[in-house]
Amino acid sequence: xNPNKALWEKGDFTRIAESMRESGEALVKGLGITKGxxxxxxxxxxxxxxxxxxxxxxxxxxxxxxxxxVEAGNKRAREEGLTxxxxxxxDASNLHELKDHTFxxxxxxxxxxxxxxxxxxxxxxxxxxxxxxxxxxGNWIPDDPTLVAQILRISSSYSPPPPxxxxxxxxWGIENxxxxxxxxARFPKRRYPSSGTGIRSIFQxxxxxxxxxxxxxxxxx
Length: 221
Fold this sequence. Notes:
By secondary structure, the chain is an alpha/beta fold. It has one domain (3-92, 108-216): Vaccinia Virus protein VP39 (Rossmann fold), CATH 3.40.50. Helices cover 32% and strands 20% of the residues.
């Protein structure tokens, strides 16, 4: 079994996700969701941002590597009667089941950052985004004062050395790394400051205009 899949299927992440419902809804309100927009929510968990996107009228596909979270997401969508939202298993590093240029918006909030091959993740996100579409990514920042960033820092100090070739998920929180990864997917780069809610880093890649946006906020989750 894929070790990343096995890891995320352990325990019950939905209990943690329940504490993120409000911030997920607040974040989605700032994404410019319109009715009929085709959205891929990558590393979606049980739908923290996918369901709010669907409630605003988008046609949403949630993709997560963990089967139990996919099942939980589909259950939540059924219970709310959201026929425009479905969840399926998939690996952010290899979205082979998804066609090129399919989605108007690709969103990954604290999700795809945990996939083990960051350059492959960036390439796949770009591949499935239509020309003129957007990619929005939220990532934890290393050594940030936020609670989760500190928990990850402390826990790593008690963990055994990582295997050879391991790339920390926290490297997605370093702007130069993000620019490099998306530039590797053939994007020129340009940086724009902006504001947001409940997230420290939002990165937008505009396919048609060939721009990479890196948005940073000073808000604390």
